[in-house]
Every structure is written in structure tokens, then in C-alpha cells.
Amino acid sequence: MRTQFAIAMFAVLGVAALTGPSFSAVTAQQATMKSCAATWTGMSAADKGKTTYKAYMSTCMKAPAATAAAAPAPAAAMTAKPAAATPAAMTAKPAAAAAMKAEAGSAKCKDGKTVTYTHRSGTCSGHGGVASWL
Predict the structure, then answer these.
(1) In this structure, is residue 129 part of a structural domain?
(2) d(CA 84, CA 82)
(3) What confidence score (pLDDT) does residue 120 get?
(4) What is the pLDDT of residue 104?
(5) What is the per-residue pLDDT for 110?
(6) Which helix H or strand E contains 129, and what residues bound it?
(7) What total number of domains does the chain contain?
(8) Domain boundary among 77, 99, 121
(9) Are residues 45 and 95 in the same domain?
(10) Mean pLDDT of 22-38
(11) How far is Cα 105 from Cα 109, in angstroms, rounded to an integer?
């Protein structure tokens, strides 16, 4: 009889603890997060394309509580994706890229090994250094 009473009392206390104010109340942060997530879900594909979900939520969560529900993230705060490259821009090669291509080649190391490299920095570092550039 005592065991049954103890089990019943433990169950009642456990339920009371889980349904207390700390578990049932929604915090302001949780409400803001739900509001921001709902706003993201309702956005058009074009608006979603202007930013990532992570960046949008970060901006929205930082907004003051009064404006978070009304306007979670101002359009100016969203980071835009870069514009698509034009065909002319795609065919033009930057000078830096051309210089990097000219840098690739071969070298003879001081221990006699011949190696190929993309950048001269660090070439033959495990072979005693560069004896000559080929």
C-alpha cells in the first residue's frame, strides 16, 4: 500500500513539474523565432533568392521585438547574391589569373629530383630547395 502511494505521489509530482510555468510558457525569443520562420515560409521565391535562410533568421532575430513580427528583416539588411556575369565578362581574363598560369612549371631540386609546381612558393621544400627553374 505504501509503495503504491509513493508511486502515485511521484507520478503526480512529475506531471506537475513538467506542466509548470517553465515548461508551458513560450519565451519572447521562441515567439520571435516562430514569427521569423513563418515569415520566411510565406516569402516569395524571388525574395528568398536574395538571401539565405540562416542570414535572414540572424537578421530577423536581432530586430527589436516590436518590429520583429511586423517586419522581421528589412530588405536593405538582406545580402543580395552577385549579379550573373555577362558573356563579355566571362571571356575576359584578369591579369592576376594570367600571371598565376604563367607561374606554373617545373623545377630541378638540389637533391636531383624534378618536380612540377603550380606556385613557386614552397617548391622543393622537402628536397633541399630549388637548384634551377625549368
Answers:
(1) yes
(2) 6
(3) 85
(4) 81
(5) 93
(6) none
(7) 2
(8) 77
(9) no
(10) 80
(11) 13
Closest CA to 35 of 4, 64, 70, 9: 70
Do 48 and 105 lie in one domain? The reply is no
- What are residue 4's DSSP bridge partners? none
Distance CA 32, CA 72 (A): 9
Domain shared by 69 and 106, yes or no: no
Q: What does residue 90 show for φ and ψ, rounded to 5 degrees?
A: -75, -30
Q: How far apart are CA 76 and CA 122, in angstroms?
A: 44
Q: Domain residues for 72?
A: 2-77
Q: What is the distance between the alpha carbons of residues 62 and 50, in angstroms, rounded to a whole number?
A: 18
Is residue 95 domain-shared with residue 123, that is, in the same domain?
Answer: yes
Burial of 18 (0-12, 13-18, 19+ CB in 10 A): exposed
The pLDDT value recorded for residue 27 is: 85
Highest mean pLDDT among 5-9, 58-62, 76-80, 98-102: 58-62
Q: What would the mean pLDDT of 14-29 be, rounded to a whole number?
A: 65
Q: Is residue 82 part of a domain?
A: no
Higher pLDDT, 35 or 7: 35
